[in-house]
């Protein structure tokens, strides 16, 4: 997994609430057995017509936003299914950070496993960032994980909260499984005790 | 933690294998369910790192999402990508020696129906699956939730999950339900009341007389949609109904182990005075048969209602509601019962169990699907299908003009040949009405099996109480 430290890039505004995982990556693209290659179908049904033509109005199709690295979105981003294809598609497109007032639980967790930083901020802050994102390609937003801040193109800064363990893993690009296997002794002793107390499991 | 505990606290405490100073825990996983769509990359990850499945005997796999529901699928699946995913699961199940129900096995079905049916799901367990509707298993008083593919790989390799504890939320449904009102109406009404983010950060315990009165099938329907309310999991304390359902199932404990298990299971309830961080109470008698009108599961209204105007909402929801109305092709002010439908889908892990088929068949008996409509029933498992045939339900559906399919997820999500065309409007017993969920441009109205059956007969959304 790639580290996430500090990112300065183009932010795209998506003010819609409840952007669900079916919008992010429709199910017909889940038939892959790989993790990569999904970027071209990110937001597929909002991005392309039935016959595969780009819909010019859609934000990521506009010239200013083709190299978007940060999404600023409405409430409850990523609701719906557990599909990790959603963060895979974002990542494959080049998006490393999503900012919203709230995220669905599973999507939020999935982001961290893939080097994507989901940032939760209050509605007023998201509104300011949304306006900044509307300025297009000349307005670069900066997300600093170490300092836990998002800064607009004109220097407004907002601090955000993040779980220290998740932050540590993201900053260092750590593999969860490797970390857990270091605690294998705890798992062994838990299993031994459970075999006594709940032998039917 | 001492003092009174919630059901969630008790199950959580019994599964913490390691706790860091900041409260990050390794939660031990008792059952890991696996399907073909969210697992290939996880098994690939194991191969690449030379890791094994730590507890293959606690890992159960079944293909369900993209298998066709028509005969011949055990010989050949036309869609190449689907076939590759199913073949990958066949191979992974073999290579890693995990429990497996291939399409050729009568026990195959939707993973959340197969788990309980085979007795893999037991009270007090932790159950995970790379699928958000894992919440279903909470009906047994098991802590069950969906995980992403990286977490699937983590559980395969370590039999644990890195977790922080959620908050406790109580949803109480008091009193009795009125005639024609079902578990589906409860769960949709709760989401209508709390919103799709109302449960974010919480594990919900459903309780109250109306919940106690539900069968195990009904309780699974309620917990199934906890995720649509944003919750990590939904729980219902186990009771005699739970124990009766579990007893004698192939993987349920037997003999002395059964007695030991039962002793523990009987301690799995929320203690008097335990703290909930959020409480929602709904009167059972206030719940009506409901349908969804929009493209979010929170867009719930009683069937007697009218399509709302976007301006009747506030904040970001105004834009979302307008988008929903445009997508659904509806005009504010029109009566819900005037909405004409093209297709009826009865099935899914929400409503694909035997009781659901009984409820739909009771409405359909001696009646016909309205001319020109497409209607299909997709049992949740091969065993549900066989039982429905034995009880004569299959014949009722067939006589009414329904297609009688093989088990799978089918039209719940358009990953297999069962899909809606653009603009096609469907009365569905599944759980998601998102844009494109049942096929690009398809329009979904969620409802109970009885309501879907009623709609099949009249050709429009219908108050099932008028047909009872
Ligand atoms: S029936 Fe639908 S919701 Fe349930 S597991 Fe299958 S696709 Fe998911």
Automatic annotation (TrEMBL), chain A:
Pfam families the record matches: Aconitase_C
Q: Which GO terms describe its molecular function?
A: 3-isopropylmalate dehydratase activity
Q: Which Gene3D superfamilies match?
A: Aconitase, domain 4
The segment(s) forming the Aconitase A/isopropylmalate dehydratase small subunit swivel domain are 1-123
* InterPro entries for this protein: 3-IsopropMal_deHydase_ssu (IPR004431), Aconitase/3IPM_dehydase_swvl (IPR015928), AconitaseA/IPMdHydase_ssu_swvl (IPR000573), IPMI_Swivel (IPR033940), LeuD (IPR050075)
Q: State the pathway, as annotated in the record.
A: Amino-acid biosynthesis; L-leucine biosynthesis; L-leucine from 3-methyl-2-oxobutanoate: step 2/4
- What keywords appear on the UniProt entry? Amino-acid biosynthesis, Branched-chain amino acid biosynthesis, Leucine biosynthesis, Lyase
What EC number(s) does its UniProt record assign? 4.2.1.33
Annotated catalysed reactions: (2R,3S)-3-isopropylmalate = (2S)-2-isopropylmalate
Q: Which family does it belong to?
A: Belongs to the LeuD family. LeuD type 1 subfamily.
Function of the protein:
Catalyzes the isomerization between 2-isopropylmalate and 3-isopropylmalate, via the formation of 2-isopropylmaleate.
On subunit structure and binding partners, the annotation says: Heterodimer of LeuC and LeuD.
Q: Can you name this protein?
A: 3-isopropylmalate dehydratase small subunit
What species is given as this protein's source? Albidovulum sediminicola
Gene coding for it:
leuD
UniProtKB/TrEMBL annotation, chain B:
The pathway to which it is assigned is: Amino-acid biosynthesis; L-leucine biosynthesis; L-leucine from 3-methyl-2-oxobutanoate: step 2/4
What is this enzyme's catalytic activity, as reactions? (2R,3S)-3-isopropylmalate = (2S)-2-isopropylmalate
Q: Which domain of life is it from?
A: Bacteria
EC top class, as a word? lyase
User: Keywords, A to Z?
Assistant: 4Fe-4S, Amino-acid biosynthesis, Branched-chain amino acid biosynthesis, Iron, Iron-sulfur, Leucine biosynthesis, Lyase, Metal-binding
This entry's Enzyme Commission designation comes to 4.2.1.33
Write down the SUPFAM superfamilies for this protein, in alphabetical order: Aconitase iron-sulfur domain
> Does the record carry Disulfide bond as a key word?
no
* Binding positions ([4Fe-4S] cluster): 349, 409, 412
Q: Name one Pfam family in it.
A: Aconitase
What InterPro entries does its record include? 3-IsopropMal_deHydase_lsu, Acnase/IPM_dHydase_lsu_aba_1/3, Acoase/IPM_deHydtase_lsu_aba, Aconitase_4Fe-4S_BS, Aconitase_4Fe-4S_dom, IPM_dehydratase_rel_enz, IPMI_cat
Supply the PROSITE patterns for this chain: ACONITASE_1 (PS00450), ACONITASE_2 (PS01244)
**Which residue intervals define the domain Aconitase/3-isopropylmalate dehydratase large subunit alpha/beta/alpha in the entry?**
9-459
Which cofactor(s) does the record list?
[4Fe-4S] cluster
Co-factor binding details: Binds 1 [4Fe-4S] cluster per subunit.
> Which family would the database say this protein is a member of?
Belongs to the aconitase/IPM isomerase family. LeuC type 1 subfamily.
Physiological role: Catalyzes the isomerization between 2-isopropylmalate and 3-isopropylmalate, via the formation of 2-isopropylmaleate.
Assembly: Heterodimer of LeuC and LeuD.
Entry's PANTHER family?
A: 3-ISOPROPYLMALATE DEHYDRATASE (PTHR43822:SF9), HOMOACONITASE, MITOCHONDRIAL-RELATED (PTHR43822)
NCBIfam families given for it? leuC, PRK05478.1, PRK12466.1
What protein is this chain from? 3-isopropylmalate dehydratase large subunit
Taxonomy-wise, where does this protein's organism fall, top ranks first? Bacteria, Pseudomonadati, Pseudomonadota, Alphaproteobacteria, Rhodobacterales
Gene symbol of the encoding locus: leuC
């Amino acid at each position: 997994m790639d580290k996430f430290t500090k990112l300065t890039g183009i932010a795209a505004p998506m003010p819609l609430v409840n952007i669900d995982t079916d919008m992010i990556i429709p199910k017909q693209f889940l038939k892959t057995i790989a993790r990569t290659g999904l970027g071209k179908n990110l937001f597929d049904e909002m991005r392309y017509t039935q016959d595969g033509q780009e819909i010019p109005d859609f934000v990521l199709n506009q010239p200013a936003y083709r190299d978007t690295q940060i999404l600023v979105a409405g409430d409850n981003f990523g609701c719906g299914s557990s599909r990790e294809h959603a963060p895979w598609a974002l990542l494959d497109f080049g998006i490393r950070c999503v900012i919203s007032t709230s995220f669905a639980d599973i999507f939020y967790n999935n982001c961290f496993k893939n080097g994507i930083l989901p940032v939760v901020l209050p509605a007023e802050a998201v509104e300011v960032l949304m306006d900044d994102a509307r300025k297009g390609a000349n307005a670069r937003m900066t997300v600093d994980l170490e300092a836990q801040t998002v800064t607009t193109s004109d220097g407004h800064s907002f601090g955000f909260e993040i779980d220290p363990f998740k932050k540590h893993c993201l900053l260092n690009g750590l593999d969860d499984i490797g970390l857990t296997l270091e605690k294998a002794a705890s798992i062994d002793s838990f299993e031994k005790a459970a075999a006594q107390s709940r032998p039917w499991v | 933690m001492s003092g009174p505990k919630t059901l969630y606290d008790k199950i959580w405490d019994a599964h913490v294998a390691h706790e860091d100073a900041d409260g990050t825990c390794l939660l031990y996983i008792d059952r890991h369910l696996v399907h073909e769509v969210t697992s290939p990359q996880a098994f690939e990850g194991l191969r690449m790192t030379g890791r094994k499945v730590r507890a293959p005997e606690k890992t159960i796999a079944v293909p369900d999402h993209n298998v066709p529901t028509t005969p011949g699928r055990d010989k050949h699946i036309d869609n190449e990508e689907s076939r590759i995913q199913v073949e990958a699961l066949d191979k992974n199940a073999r290579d890693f020696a995990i429990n497996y129900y291939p399409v050729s096995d009568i026990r195959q079905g939707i993973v959340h129906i197969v788990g309980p049916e085979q007795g893999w799901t037991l009270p007090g367990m932790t159950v995970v699956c790379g699928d958000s509707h894992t919440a279903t298993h909470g009906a047994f008083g098991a802590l069950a939730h969906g995980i992403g593919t990286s977490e699937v790989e983590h559980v395969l390799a370590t039999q644990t999950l890195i977790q922080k504890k959620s908050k406790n939320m109580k949803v109480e449904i008091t009193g009795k339900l009125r005639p024609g009102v079902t578990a589906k109406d409860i769960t949709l009404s709760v989401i209508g009341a709390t919103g799709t983010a109302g449960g974010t950060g919480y594990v919900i315990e459903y309780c109250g007389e109306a919940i106690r009165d539900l069968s195990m099938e009904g309780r699974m329907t309620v917990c199934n949609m906890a995720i649509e309310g944003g919750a990590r999991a939904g729980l219902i304390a186990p009771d005699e109904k739970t124990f009766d359902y579990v007893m004698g199932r192939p993987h349920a404990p037997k003999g002395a182990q059964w007695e030991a298990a039962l002793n523990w299971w009987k301690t799995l309830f929320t203690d008097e005075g335990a703290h909930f961080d959020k409480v929602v109470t709904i009167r059972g008698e206030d719940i009506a048969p409901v349908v969804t009108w929009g493209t979010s599961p929170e867009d719930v209204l009683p069937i007697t209602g009218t399509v709302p105007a976007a301006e009747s909402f506030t904040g970001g929801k105004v834009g979302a509601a307008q988008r929903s109305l445009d997508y659904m092709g509806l005009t504010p002010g029109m009566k819900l019962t005037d909405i004409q439908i093209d297709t009826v889908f009865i099935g899914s892990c929400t409503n694909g169990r035997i009781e659901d088929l009984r409820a739909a068949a009771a409405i359909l008996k001696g009646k016909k699907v309205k001319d020109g409509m497409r209607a299909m029933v997709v049992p949740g498992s091969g065993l549900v299908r066989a039982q429905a045939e034995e009880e004569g339900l299959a014949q009722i559906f067939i006589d009414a003009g329904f297609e009688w399919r093989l088990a799978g997820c089918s039209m719940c999500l358009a990953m297999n040949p069962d899909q809606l065309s653009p603009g096609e409007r469907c009365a569905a017993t599944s759980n998601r009405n998102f844009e494109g969920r049942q096929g690009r441009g398809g329009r979904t109205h969620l409802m109970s099996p009885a309501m879907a059956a009623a709609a099949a007969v009249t050709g429009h959304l219908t108050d099932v109480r008028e047909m009872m």
